[in-house]
Design goal:
Length: 294
């Protein structure tokens, strides 16, 4: 399959030519808005957390405006650009409060979208960070994920969007099998995850920013203290299988992700780039235009 990424270095707009694409497909990529919302319907610890985190993010927003206003502005920009779909790659919420989920539903109303969760979407800061906590909060996102936040797929034009929740730095054997089945049809596919997959060219920037290899499949650079802080264990066999599958899939045209809070584009292999979004709380977003290769 012929795939050509014309300007991967641009942080906000990218053109990708794809053989076999039925028509042009325009996607609006948004990640890491980190909305810390809570009101009287949420427990007091959630309200205290919202009061704590809102000033933290507001120091980093354009003009020091609340993250809510940044998010609403980005969604309005999306509506003006009128893409075929909105690609959400996690940490849209800072925790899954009633108020946050309600705001999310309003923001997404009337939009075609695919939303994969980030490690903050499902986690309150006063709960243990674990796969069990994620599973316990999954039902809050059923309405946004067709009832299955772990694995999703959506056809947009001739492009197949596949979403896997890798927000605990691993994927399961069932998720790998789901991805394998979706890729087997040979049609152009795009993968949405929250945590970037390990790419050698990405790692120096990740280490400089976070002092730990906080990507899926990252192994070099961990210390015992960093593993304890980030709660990241050794790379599981299923996660390795996913990384191998991605490298082999010739019809995978790209990967969209977030998490590390800076924009990047790195070549996974010829024809496939991984696009990391600039965080939404900084006003970051990306428009990707997929066009038939002629």
């Amino acid at each position: 399959m012929k795939i050509l990424h014309l300007n991967p270095e641009h942080p906000e707009e990218n053109q990708i030519l794809v053989e076999g694409l039925e028509r042009e497909v325009r996607l609006f990529h948004l990640s890491d808005t980190h909305l810390p919302e809570a009101d009287a319907r949420d427990p007091n610890p959630a309200r205290l957390a919202a009061a704590h985190f809102q000033p933290y993010f507001q120091q980093r927003t354009p003009g020091g405006i609340p993250t809510r206003e940044v998010s609403l502005g980005l969604m309005e920009r999306c509506r003006v650009l009128s893409p075929d779909a909105l690609a959400l790659t996690g940490d849209i919420l800072h925790f899954p409060s009633v108020a946050g989920l309600e705001l999310l539903a309003r923001n997404l109303g009337g939009q075609e979208y695919l939303y994969t969760l980030g490690n903050h979407d499902w986690h309150f800061p006063y709960h243990p960070w674990s796969a069990a906590t994620r599973q316990a909060h999954y039902p809050r996102f059923f309405a946004f994920s067709g009832g299955n936040p772990a694995c999703q797929v959506k056809q947009v034009g001739g492009l197949r969007l596949i979403a896997l929740d890798n927000s605990i730095y691993q994927v399961s054997a069932a998720q790998v099998e789901f991805l394998r089945r979706q890729l087997q049809n040979g049609k152009p596919c795009l993968l949405l995850v929250h945590i970037p997959l390990v790419v050698p060219s990405l790692m120096p920037s990740v280490m400089a920013r976070w002092d730990a290899p906080i990507v899926m499949g990252g192994e070099d650079g961990w210390t015992a203290e960093a593993r304890a802080k980030w709660m990241v264990g050794e790379v599981a066999p299923s996660t390795r299988a996913c990384l191998e599958l991605v490298q082999q899939a010739e019809n995978l045209v790209g990967i969209l992700c977030g998490h590390v809070h800076f924009p990047r584009a790195d070549q996974m292999r010829p024809g496939c780039f991984q696009y990391v979004a600039r965080p939404g709380f900084e006003g970051g977003c990306r428009m990707l235009n997929f066009k038939p290769y002629r």
